[in-house]
Automatic annotation (TrEMBL):
Pfam families (alphabetical): DMT_YdcZ (PF04657)
Membrane spanning stretches: 6-27, 39-58, 78-97, 104-124, 136-153
Keyword Transferase included in the entry's annotation: no
Name this protein carries in UniProt: DMT family transporter
Superkingdom to which the source organism belongs: Eukaryota
Keyword flag Transmembrane: yes
InterPro entries: YdcZ
Record-level GO cellular component terms: plasma membrane
Source organism of the structure: Coemansia brasiliensis
Keywords assigned: Membrane, Transmembrane, Transmembrane helix
Amino acid sequence: MTALDEVSLGVVLLIIGGVCTGVQGPMNGRLAISTSGSFSAFLSFALGFWPLLIYFLADTKGGKTVDWPEAARNAPGYAWLGGIFGGLFVLILTLVIHRRGAAITNGIIVVTQLIISVVIDQAGAFQVTQRDCTPLRGGGLACMIVGITLVTLF
């Protein structure tokens, strides 16, 4: 069992991640006003590369704990391409947030993430644990959709 298996630590990290996501967009959007959306998104990934590299090197003892040939054989091709979606996400967020505002932009993102996550869970796609979209889960999605609609309109 690792420290990340502890529920309380996981929740704290997710909250920190939510704060980071909530702050990143407006910061990138502000830089885009002064420079360009493409530069702001690029810089975001360039700066984000360093903490990720440090964590990767510490976590894998410099990459030595990963069996790279085995990983190449066993990980499906799509599993190596997640960063493309991350890059598109940051670019879109950077381009839109200063035009629509943080609440609307992040609200639509969160609701969309939740909807696609429920679809992925329902299908068991990408080898996640399959979880049915129960009436309560569907009701929760409906509440989120109503909520972002209210935030967007008012």
